[in-house]
Every structure is written in C-alpha cells, then in structure tokens.
Design brief:
Length: 148
C-alpha cells in the first residue's frame, strides 16, 4: 500500500489524500496515517524541488576538494550553508569533500570557490568540473546517510 501511495505522489505530489484514497480504493484516513508513518520513520519525505534553471542558475559544477582531515568536516559544513550548494559530502579516496554547486554564472561559481572555499587553511586542492549536459538526475530518490 505504501508503495502505491508513493507511486501516485511521484506522478503528482499535489494529489490530495482524498484523490489518492479514491484511486487506491481505501479511506483518506488510511492514506493520511500511512503518509504520517512514512514521514516519521524517515522512509519518505514530501518536499518541493527547486528548479535552479528557472531561478536563473545557468552554471552547475561538481567541486572536488582535498583538505587536511582535521578541517574537512568544518569545511564541508560551512560550504553546505551556501544556497548555491545543493549537495555536500565527506568522501573517501583522493578527494575528501564533494560539492554540487549551481549558480547564476561562472563568475559566481568562481567567487564561491576562490573567496570562500580556497580561503580555508587546510584546503590543499580544488578541482571544478562544469556540467555541460545532465543525462540523468533523479529527484524522486535521495540518498541520505544519517549519523549513527
């Protein structure tokens, strides 16, 4: 039942509980209870998705960072505060921070990288990859790793 409710919401997140119930042949009270349980358990989150292009953001870049381990968490948490950064993670391997940055221009991307990111003591290397075409970007699934 939960999967069917979520499938309908994926098609149209604005669908009412009443309409969902009608389509599935159940009560809207049951739909409301299932949605509350999914939300409280962390299995599903209903949210709005911002269209960065409609907001005038024309440049998107994947930013990979090598920093001293002792400052990595502080750097990624501070960078995550920027409105232009939609994804910020600590990683393993050669780079220990990865960011997804969407901005109004290349100049704005450069300003964030040079005035903020590179200014951190302990940031050793920054590699910026401008995205020229997005082939796949699923907005209906988000990977969230919670602290234990």
């Amino acid at each position: 039942m939960d999967r069917e409710i979520v499938a309908l919401l994926k098609e149209d997140a604005r669908i009412s509980n009443r309409e969902t119930a009608r389509r599935l042949g159940i009560s809207d009270t049951l739909v409301r209870k299932r949605l509350r349980r999914l939300s409280e358990s962390g299995l599903a989150k209903i949210t709005a998705v911002t269209d960065y292009v409609a907001m005038g953001h024309t440049t998107t870049a994947l930013v990979r960072v090598v920093s001293a381990p002792k400052v990595a968490r502080e750097v990624v948490e501070e960078m995550a505060k920027f409105e232009q950064i939609s994804f910020a993670a600590l990683t393993t391997g050669r780079f220990n921070i990865v960011l997804l940055l969407s901005a109004r221009s290349r100049r704005e991307v450069a300003d964030i990288i040079h005035k903020h990111l590179r200014s951190w003591s302990g940031v050793h290397m920054v590699e910026t990859l401008e995205l020229v075409e997005t082939v796949k970007h699923r907005l209906d699934v988000a990977l969230v790793v919670r602290d234990k």
